Amino acid sequence: MTSAPSHFNSPSAERFPVVVVGAGPAGLTVGNILRAAGVDCLVLEAGTREFVEQRPRAGVIEEWAVRGLERRGLADRLLERAERHSECEFRFDGRAHRFAHTELTGRHHWVYSQPLLVTDLVREYADVRGGDIRFGVRDVRLHEPDSDRPAVSYTDPDTGERRLVHCDFIAGCDGPRGVSRAALPARARTSRHDYGIGWLALLAEAPPCADRVLFGMHPGGFAGQMPRSSRLTRYYLQCPPGDDPADWPDERVWAELQRRLRAADRPPLTEGPLLEKRVLDMHDYVVEPMVFGRLFLAGDAAHLVAPIAAKGMNLALNDAFLLGDALVAHLAEGDDSGLDGYSARCLRRVWEYQDFSRWLAEIFHGVSDGDSYRAGTTLARLRRLFSSPAAAAAFAEQYLGTADTY
Ligand code: RFL
Asked: Which CATH number applies to 87-107+194-283+367-400: 1.10.150.130, 3.20.170.30, 3.30.9.10, 3.40.50.300?
């Protein structure tokens, strides 16, 4: 955070009720909610439009999030094009075990890639709702977010000039490495968890071998398959943290995936070119509270959850719904209750999902570190999912995020 720049009263300064920093799922959803209510806002994004529309990441969206987008007029293309999953499959002890979560909850997982969702949200915000979005901005700085006169400045990528924008609120939606989290005061608490493992994240130009998510618990390490479309599949392979993707040539990747996901009476995986290969060091963090003065954090800027349970984008959307609605209520109706309760309401679901992610991490990785005691308890947990209706119901509720108490 920096204090007010010397040109704070510059006549060239602009003014918007809300400046949103970051055009990911969180920032674009906030911007769309504001525009639908006729609230002016400015979205500042460091990447180009092509960059944000093509960056491959998430794919699984929970049904409550789909319905939240639909209620705000943001899901037309998603509803037309997304696939719906009603089951997932656990593979362990060389066998496949199907888990029919929709039978237990009545809800689905929707599969729609993050680049498609971001493309839809940019189009709706900029091209349909007439929102102002500036791509490629450099050196964004937040000024006095804890005052009642906050501002944001940035360098214009075309002219190289500094621009200043006064606002009433800043929505900090710029992910884990943005400027918003860095603007928090030292007293803001960040709680962290490090899993001590890595995942090699892969995107294959190949159809999934089954139209469901696969979780492979194998003594050699976890492997997962997440279908993205009929021609794209995301795979994960557990590896040491900090591993070099260059040590994973395609032949090694496919051999490990085939080995760790093998199950009797199931066909082998369909192989294809690997479009993305990167090692993710698995860790989580949560910032509390998610508000500092007039700076409201949303999405990965406020909390990171490793992609173990496919929850990060869902949490980003939950924050964005709450923040967008709360800003509209304040700016249009003078109702402060949404803004006052924003952080606490978001954090309910955030901590629930953090807990589920840790629980699932134990299931995924508990059989592979050579500790026979840990492997024994992990296999007991796995078997319980398929023998105890209460355990199955609890898992399904958390996997789909369907509890009413978030
Ligand atoms: P994003 O998407 O990171 O967007 C932040 C935006 O801010 C921009 N930015 C800045 N702009 C201006 N000034 C600055 N100083 C800036 N610094 C950064 C960035 O360019 C970017 O455009 O954050 P947001 O909106 O909070 O969304 C969070 C999600 O992207 C993230 O949680 C998910 O991708 C996590 N995740 C998954 N989540 C799910 O719910 N389901 C999944 O299936 C799922 N799979 C995944 C995932 C994340 C993955 N990786 C890469 C960690 C799979 C993977 C491999």
From this structure: 3.30.9.10
